[in-house]
């Protein structure tokens, strides 16, 4: 039976742990890809929003695993002219072995996956960004030697990245402290479900200085996400004191590492001094997208028939 990856919950904690170890092995070059696990397979990428990292890392991952990536800009396919999500999914899964989608409403990818006979991977929706947090956990594992028991302070908007971070943290036993202005908390349903697992500590605060005090990792993302109102000046004003800067880092542990999923808005949620500074693991984190995409494709696409 096909297996989708629409949210973090689609994998077990064991599968994620194995996937992280496999990603590290792939990064070390331990596998020379001489068996090309995606040989003869094609994967489609339907993107209804912009992307640099997700698109390119998936395209390269598919190529390096021996498969064919087919980028489908949503403006160029009949979906744009009103062909239904269900019909598109049924047709494309007759040609392709895997479909990666970046879209707006999360319900849209659920509908697509429900009508697809091949694995569907979430390349970001308004509510979730599960592929991103696989690379984030790999980066924590790489920098700290382990991710279990780590303490992560997420400072900023309770958006898709925050929701997926909540899910993966609760699955893996990573403590999460979220600092955001009132009204910008992560999704209530995600919070309820993650809190009920009881595997980690989840703390919501308003004060970013308090949040970073005991953290091993500080994480942030843009204040205005794709699909949000780009000229929301009032929102940016509310986030002003949530910037990751040297003053905030002075309240954190000396060996803290800083993550950002990118793209960054330098001077808004993070300063250039921090992003380019010695505590930043951001560019390792972005490189790790490639290795985790490969491990994910191996798990969902290659291992089924090879
Ligand atoms: N982090 C991330 O998903 O980046 P892109 O929007 O460039 O894909
Ligand atoms: N929260 C951001 C993440 C971009 C990778 C957005 O959705 O635009």
Give the rounded overall mean pLDDT: 96
Kindly identify the CATH topology of the largest domain.
Rossmann fold
How is the quaternary structure best described?
single chain
Q: Would you count the extended β strands for me? A: 9
CATH superfamily of the largest domain: Aspartate/ornithine carbamoyltransferase
Structural class by SSE content: alpha/beta
Helix content: 40-55%
The fraction of residues in strands falls at 5-15%
Keywords:
5-stranded parallel sheet, alpha/beta, 306 residues, 4-stranded parallel sheet, Rossmann fold, binds norvaline, globular
SSE layout and pairings?
Blueprint lengths: L12 H16 L13 E6 L5 H12 L3 E6 L11 H8 L5 E5 L3 H9 L5 E3 L7 H15 L6 E5 L4 H13 L2 E5 L8 H10 L4 E4 L2 H5 L4 E4 L12 H6 L7 H4 L7 E4 L11 H4 L6 H21 L4
Parallel strand pairs: 1-2, 1-3, 3-4, 5-6, 5-8, 6-7, 8-9
Helix pairs in contact: 1-5, 1-12, 2-12, 3-4, 5-6, 5-12, 6-7
The structure holds phosphoric acid mono(formamide)ester and norvaline.
